[in-house]
C-alpha cells in the first residue's frame, strides 16, 4: 500500500504528534479518507523524515504515534539550481513541477531580455513544488526564489561551482571529465525564454565563465529543454 508523504514543520513530543493544520486535517479526513492505524510519512524538507501512525481523529486535529526516524537519501548528490526565464501561460508552473520531480534543488525565475511574461504567483508556485516533492519522494524541498533579472542571476550564480548555459549555438552537451569533478557540488543550469538568449546575454555568460552548450540538433521548447537539462545535470 502506498504511504502518503507530507512535508511540513512537524514537532512531535516524544512518540506523540498532533497535527492541527486545517488543510492537512481536511486532507487526511475528507480527501484521502485515511483511517486509524494507517501509516504516513512526515518530512521536514531538509532530508529528515519519520513515519506516523494515525491514532485518532478529532474535530480540530489528528493524533499520531511517531515511529521510525530516518534520513531520506532519494535526492541526487548534485545540487542543481535551475535559472529559468519566465515562460508564457502556465508553462513555468509545469517546469517547476517537473524540475522538482527530476531533482532540482532550487528554482530561480529569471527575467531576460526577451522575456514576454513578467510576473508569477510565487505562492502558488511554491505550493506546486511542495506537492511535487511530496509525490516524488524527495528528501529536500526545493527553494523557489523571488523573480530576479538576468544580470542578478549571473552574479548570484558565481557562487556555484559550475554553471551550464544552454543555447542552440553552443557545443553539444556531454558529461565530460569536469562533470565528475563537480558531481556533488552546486551546478547552475540556465534556460532562456521562447525567443532565446540575446547576444548580450551570451557574452555575459561567457565572461562569467559559464559553459555554453546545446542539447543537440533538435529544437526543443524552452520548458522541454529545462526538464531535460535538469535531469542531465542532476543525474
Protein architecture, described:
It contains seven helices and twelve strands. It has 235 residues and is α/β, with parallel strands linked by helices. It has two domains: 5-71, Hypothetical PUA domain-like, domain 1 (Ribosomal Protein L25, Chain P), CATH 2.40.240.20; 79-234, SPOUT methyltransferase, trefoil knot domain (Alpha/beta knot, 3-Layer(aba) Sandwich). Helix 2 (91-102) runs parallel beside helix 3 and helix 2 runs parallel beside helix 7 (222-234). 31% of the residues are buried.
The average pLDDT is 92
Number of self-contained structural domains = 2
Q: What's the architecture of the largest domain, going by CATH?
A: 3-Layer(aba) Sandwich
What is the number of E strands? 12
Compressed to H and E, one letter per element, the order equals EEHEEEEHEHEEHEHEHEH
Q: Any idea what the shape is?
A: elongated
> What's the CATH C level of the largest domain?
Alpha Beta
- Going by helix content, strand content and strand pairing, the class is alpha/beta
Spans of at least 5 consecutive residues with low confidence? none
Radius of gyration: 20 Å
User: What proportion strand?
Assistant: 25-35%
Query: Helical amount among residues, as a percent range?
Result: 25-40%
- Counting DSSP H or I runs of 4 or more residues, the number of helices is 7
Largest sheet: 7 strands, parallel
Distance N to C terminus: 28 Å
For CATH, the homologous superfamily of the largest domain is named as SPOUT methyltransferase, trefoil knot domain
